[in-house]
Every structure is written in C-alpha cells, then in structure tokens.
Amino acid sequence: xxxxxxxxxxxxxxxxxxxxxxxxxxxxxxxxxxxxxxxxxxxxxxxxxxxxxxxxxxxxxxxxxxxxxxxxxxxxxxxxxxxxxxxxxxxxxxxxxxxxxxxxxxxxxxxxxxxxxxxxxxxxxxxxxxxxxxxxxxxxxxxxxxxxxxxxxxxxxxxxxxxxxxxxxxxx
Length: 172
Description:
Elements: H1 3-14, H2 34-40, E1 42-44, H3 50-63, E2 74-89, E3 95-110, E4 117-130, H4 136-168
Parallel strand pairs: 1-2
Antiparallel strand pairs: 2-3, 3-4
Helix pairs in contact: 2-4, 3-4
C-alpha cells in the first residue's frame, strides 16, 4: 500500500474517534440530522431589493434541501446590502474595473410568544468585474452575475453558521 493510499484511510479511521461529524450528517437510522431539520424549519423574511431577492432565493434553495414541507418553527430576518467601488480608473476618468462588496447581518428568532432571539451573525464577501470599452450591455450582464455570485457566497456563509447552531443545540 502506498503512502498516498494509506493517509486518507488513516485519516478516515481517526476522525470519528475525535468527535468529528460532517455538518450535514444524518442522524441514527438514516433520518435527517439536526442541521438539515433545523434549516428546513426556518421561514425567511422578505427582502425587497433585487440583490435581497437573489439572497433570499439562494437561502431558500439551501434550507429546503432536505425537509421541504416541515412546519416553520423559526424566523430569519436578514439585512443585506451591496456597495460598489470603481478600482481601475483610466487617465480619461473612465472606469475599467468595479468591485462589489456584499454584507449581511441576520437574526434567528423562535416563533414563540416571546419571539426569543436564538442566534445572530453576519456574512461578508467581495467580487468584481471588468468594464470593456463601449460594452455597456456586457458590463450590465457581468454586474448581474457578480450580484448572483455574492448572494450565493453570503447564503453559503449564513447556512453554515445556522447549521452549526442547530448541530450545537441539538437535543440528546
């Protein structure tokens, strides 16, 4: 057996002994794990701007992955915004590169009478696109694609933070 084959096998044998468990691991008996169930029980609040709608859609895709149809027990409120900077300015004052930064803060509350706050967090990412001479349509398309990528990255961060919360606070 070569070293390349031995290391992954040894790692796979050691990790369960140290308490490692995949984030989205199934529970005993093959049923959905605490992260998967918890995410499926979240109702996402409305987001009105186009960038917010992209983020909300990305979150819905991730949350409903394993438990569509479960009763909603939690509310997620997300504040989301994008900002842009021109970072490549030519001598004639034209811009050839734009950097967009997306940031979100979120609050998870229980749907109990007290509206108990269970967890809060934030997520941030950046991306950019080039503007070619006299290619306005292309720049618009690039802007839309960058906004989609930022929404996907922010949704990934929020999903991981919430999955960690549900795994940490899972019942016995």
